[in-house]
Design a protein that fits this description.
Distance between the termini: 28 Å
Oligomer: single chain
Helix content: 10-25%
Structural class: alpha+beta
Length: about 425
């Protein structure tokens, strides 16, 4: 029951009155997946619904100065596809509604993408233009030098805002974006404008004609159902003994995370469940383990760059933690919950992640993952991993992008432990 109440608290973290609802589209008039595009008629119907309900349409940068309680909506079009100019622009022009387009800078003028002249026409009619980075890279997988290149606006334009590709970002990305842009767009669900560089952008759904007004009130999407169902997963799962924290988890997680994170993993008979939610420099971290052992933990973390300190509760007793950021290359951390653990989470080379931990009960573990140089326009979604945790294991993971199921903030993983004859799978979402 205590775990149930703690997760409910986490689900409610950051809830506030509606301030701005963002609809994120990629294609208009071209069928490219249930969360990426709609027809022009569907777009027009949804705009009419919101106008009839008293909503006022604003651009991304205008949301930053919204007064609490205003009913505003932002239409955001990522990637800069030409079908947005051909199919969405006439609808918005006829209804006198502004939009915000985020083109991939290096693809402007390429086949299927808007030209500079088309973008200039949008601006002349009240649209706003932001950056969707130079090449549509997965920003959270980059080292500081590559991250700076992706985020740096080109010499001839200044952009008010940036939209993070796939919504995948972390504290390193947000810190750099703050120095270059007035605001940043994520794919987080919700409506509260608390951090201008973490503006929400909930995923569209196939049922928006019916549930749009409900979604507008709270910024809900399909991930909201997963998050609200999290207490049931923990409350209904069987308990055990010999509790321990999930591998590589610590209560001071901040530097390598964005606005939120949700993960479920199964390895052999063990199930683990992790949650993270951030509002400005404060975060909540929660972890739960079931199977041969049971572990429940919740902590509040406060970041005072480059140090993050945390304190909370676990079923072992008081929970304390600390982490130190390493200048954009990751963090080192320590955890105490009756037993101690120290570790590191590093990005020393682009698209390579190194995690290591030494635990006073279980000893050491390490994991190295690498994103293969395939489908670079979709953030190199396929990655392989090699690690050691009471026996070597190999694994791979595939983010759902580049196909008819382009869920860019989701990741599905699989892991094999040959020496222990164990198999593991996991699903996570980062936003």
């Amino acid at each position: 029951m205590r775990a149930f109440l703690l997760v409910v608290l986490l689900c409610c973290f950051g809830v506030a009155r509606a301030e701005n609802f963002t609809l994120v589209y990629h294609h208009i008039g071209v069928q490219k997946g249930v969360t990426l595009g709609v027809t022009a008629d569907e777009l027009e119907r949804r705009i009419h619904q919101l106008l009839d309900a008293g909503y006022r349409f604003v651009t991304s940068s205008q949301t930053v100065n919204n007064r609490r309680g205003q009913k505003t909506v932002t239409l955001r079009f990522d990637d800069g596809f030409e079908d947005v100019f051909l199919n969405a622009y006439p609808v918005l022009k006829r209804l006198n509604v502004p939009g915000t387009v985020y083109p991939i800078l290096d693809l402007i003028g390429h086949p299927g993408h808007m030209t500079h002249d088309q973008i200039a026409q949008l601006v002349a009619d009240g649209w706003e233009v932001g950056s969707h980075t130079r090449s549509h890279a997965s920003l959270a997988d980059l080292t500081p030098s590559s991250l700076a290149w992706e985020l740096l606006p080109d010499d001839s334009h200044r952009y008010a805002c940036i939209a993070y590709p796939f919504g995948r970002h972390d504290a390193r990305v947000r810190r750099k974006a703050t120095s270059l842009y007035g605001c940043g767009g994520t794919v987080a669900f919700g409506v509260r404008v608390s951090d201008p560089h973490a503006l929400q952008g909930p995923l569209i759904t196939p049922w928006d004609d019916s549930v749009l007004m409900l979604r507008a009130a709270g910024g809900y999407d399909l991930r909201s159902l997963l998050l609200l169902g999290s207490p049931l997963v923990t409350a209904l799962d069987q308990r055990g003994t010999n509790a321990h924290a999930p591998r590589f988890w610590h209560p001071s997680g901040f530097e390598m995370l964005g606005s939120g994170f949700l993960a479920y993993r199964w390895v052999g008979a063990e199930r683990s469940h992790q949650l993270f939610a951030r509002s400005r420099q404060v975060a909540l971290n929660a972890a739960f383990v079931r199977g041969e052992g049971a572990y429940d933990a919740l902590a509040i973390a406060v970041n005072t760059d480059p140090v993050t300190l945390s304190w909370g509760w676990s079923n072992r007793g008081p929970l304390l933690g600390a982490a130190l950021a390493l200048g954009g290359y990751g963090e080192v951390w320590a955890r105490y919950d009756g037993n101690w653990g120290v570790g590191a989470d590093l990005c020393l080379v682009d698209y390579t992640r190194i995690q290591a931990e030494v635990d006073s009960i279980r000893g050491g573990a390490a994991d190295v993952s690498y994103a293969l140089p395939w489908n670079t326009r979709e953030g190199r979604p396929w990655r392989v991993s090699l690690g050691h945790d009471a026996g070597f294991y190999v694994g791979s993971s595939m983010r759902f992008v580049g196909s008819s199921m382009r869920f860019g903030s989701f990741e599905l993983s699989a892991r094999v432990h040959p020496t222990q004859r164990r198999f593991g799978i996991g699903i996570s979402s980062m936003w």
